[in-house]
Structures are given as C-alpha cells and as structure tokens.
Amino acid sequence: MVAEFDATAERVWQIWEDPRQLERWWGPPTWPATFVSHDFVPGGTASYYMSGPDGEKIGYCWVFTEIAAPYSLSFDDRFTDDDGNPSSDMPTIHTAVSIEEAGASTRMTIRSRFDSLEQLEELVAMGMEEGVASALGQVDAIVAD
C-alpha cells in the first residue's frame, strides 16, 4: 500500500512511534486497535487487540526487526491467543514500512510479505486489503493535528 500525506516525514513517523496515535488509525474504523504495550526498539514487542462491532476481540503482537527513524521500520505481525501467545494456526505478516519525503508531502509505503501464497490468500479473503486501505484513510486527520 502506498499513501501520501501533507506532512513531514518526522510527523508521519510519529503515527508509528506513539501508541496512542497508532490506536487512532491502525485497524479499520469498525475494528479499532488498543495497544497494551509498545516497546518501539529493534527486538522490542508491541501487543494490541482489535475490537469488532459485536464486541469480539482479536489479539496480535509485533516484533520490531528494524527501526531507522524517521524513514523505515520493519516488524513481524502475528495473531495471538487469549493469553497473548503467538498463534501457530495463523500466518505471520512480515511488514516493512518506508517513509520518504516527496516534494511538499511524504510518501509512506507499507509492504507485507507472507511465507506462502496460501497465507496471503487466506488473509486477503479475511478482508485484510480493504481493512488496511480504510485504516490508512484515517491518517490524514491525525497528521493534520
């Protein structure tokens, strides 16, 4: 996914660095995220859950593999069970984010990689593509604050 924002790279970086700002956009509007922890350093972890419109909660965790402020970060995103343990039944999403200034705006590119085509197809069928697109649609209002 690629999106451009009327903000500096440093301002766009803050939407990743600050868990309260992440909560305002990570996840579609109907499935908002709540970050329980956010150790934003290489090797650090973040845990969060997304709440559905019917009260359903799905847990996730990130392991940060690279952080190079304010231009790139990478993390592995995994589903978790009710106790916060990574699920072996669901795929890991290997995510790489790049943030680059593009004239008067900033371009953010999010690349997701999977261990197999089947894993990608499973998450696309669950609505991941639409979810990410609607989540990104919330960023303009945040960076304008």
Give me the oligomer status: single chain
Return residue spans where pLDDT drops below 50 for at least 5 consecutive residues.
Answer: none
Q: In CATH's first tier, which class applies?
A: Alpha Beta
Task: Write the CATH fold name.
Answer: Alpha-D-Glucose-1,6-Bisphosphate, Chain A, domain 4
Secondary-structure element order, N to C: EHHEEEEEEHHH
Main traits of this protein?
5 helices, Alpha-D-Glucose-1,6-Bisphosphate, Chain A, domain 4, 7 strands, alpha+beta, single chain, 145 residues, seven-stranded antiparallel sheet
Report a brief summary of the structure.
It is built from 5 helices and 7 strands, in the order βααββββββααα. By secondary structure, the chain is an alpha+beta fold. It has a single domain, classed as START domain (Alpha-D-Glucose-1,6-Bisphosphate, Chain A, domain 4, 2-Layer Sandwich).
Can you walk me through this structure?
The protein has 145 residues and is α+β, with helices and mostly antiparallel strands. The chain has one domain: Alpha-D-Glucose-1,6-Bisphosphate, Chain A, domain 4. It is 26% helix and 39% strand. The protein contains five helices and seven strands; from the N terminus they run βααββββββααα. It has a seven-stranded antiparallel beta sheet with strand order 1-7-6-5-4-3-2. The chain is globular, with a radius of gyration of 15 Å. 17% of the residues are buried.
SSE inventory with pairings:
Elements: E1 2-5, H1 9-17, H2 19-23, E2 33-38, E3 45-51, E4 57-68, E5 72-80, E6 93-102, E7 105-113, H3 117-125, H4 128-136, H5 139-144
Antiparallel strand pairs: 1-7, 2-3, 3-4, 4-5, 5-6, 6-7
